[in-house]
Design brief:
Elements (H helix, E strand, L loop, with lengths): L1 H6 L9 E5 L4 H13 L4 E6 L19 E5 L5 H10 L4 E4 L6 H6 L1 H23 L9 E7 L24 H20 L3 E6 L1 E3 L8 H11 L3 E4 L5 E6 H14 L5 E4 L4 E3 H15 L11 E4 L14 H7 L7 H14 L1 H5 L3
Parallel strand pairs: 1-2, 1-4, 2-3, 4-5, 5-6, 6-10, 7-9, 8-12
Antiparallel strand pairs: 9-11
Length: 352
Amino acid sequence: MNESLTNRQENNNQVRRLLVTGGAGFIGTNFVQYWCDTYPCDRLVVLDALTYAGNKQNLQELAGNPNFCFVQGDIGDRALVDKLLISENIDTIVHFAAESHVDRSILQPATFIQTNIVGTHTLLEAFRQYLEIAKLVNKPLFLHISTDEVYGSLNLIDPAFTETTPYAPNSPYSASKASSDHLARAYFHTYGLPTIVTNCSNNYGAFQFSEKLIPLICINILQGKSLPIYGNGQNIRDWLYVGDNCTAIDAVISHGKPGETYNIGGNNEIKNIDLVSKICALMDELAAIPIKPSNQLITYVRDRPGHDFRYAINASKIKTQLGWTPTTTMEEGLRFTVQWYCDCRQWWEALI
């Protein structure tokens, strides 16, 4: 598949023009770097508001790329979105921009409603009206990047989430993402807007903001701080290396069917406490740290309100229909990620 995707660059008529929202955030940064490396002839415009989790420095190496453009702005700014769609002749929107931290959504739910629901609606409506007048060579696409958290929580014996699992969000964050998923679906069925939704499991890798579990544990170990674990640490997540998510998104953009949803998972279910223990072992091996063994820093704290017990993704649909499977093992991805946080102190020190 990868060879056939690359070969489309030989035909200039197949060059895509992408608007990537939230492209300076964690997954967005990795996707933008991946796409520019894989499809250097494509035009890629990043729109990011540069709130606390967005970092323009993440994309510094692309500053001299003539096919790359960065615009600081809000997805809720309809005039700006309209201008970019028209001036850049956009045919593909890849929508990462979102408020995404559950704890923050509990404290400030209104921000999540505004960005994740109202902002997504603004993009959908702008793209719908733009396509009425645009003369595009490529088939247009609106790819909405979402989360497995919209499906709610699983017990130990429950089957993994599929694309037909009923939505049952349990936090303001997941509820706002569920709403935006429904909007994307509705715009396909009502207006024929070519939308696709991807629901992925927990991502990890380079450039992830320090409030999320893996970077938080890495950074706290490097600083000799306590490692807070919610409840008893038995909550289970399916972890997906961000590079694998990028190749999955590539497969969806290139071969996905409008109106469909694709679940993307890493096949790496693990308890939070076991994951933290793995990170501690890697840190003990790879880093000069103030307290060793680092697992003595583990501290159990009061559980998060409404904390989902288990997430698990059944990714058989994207494997069967689009030929995608994850290729990075948890051991490989976690070692790379831990090493990155050890080597890139300047990056995370500037954020804390």
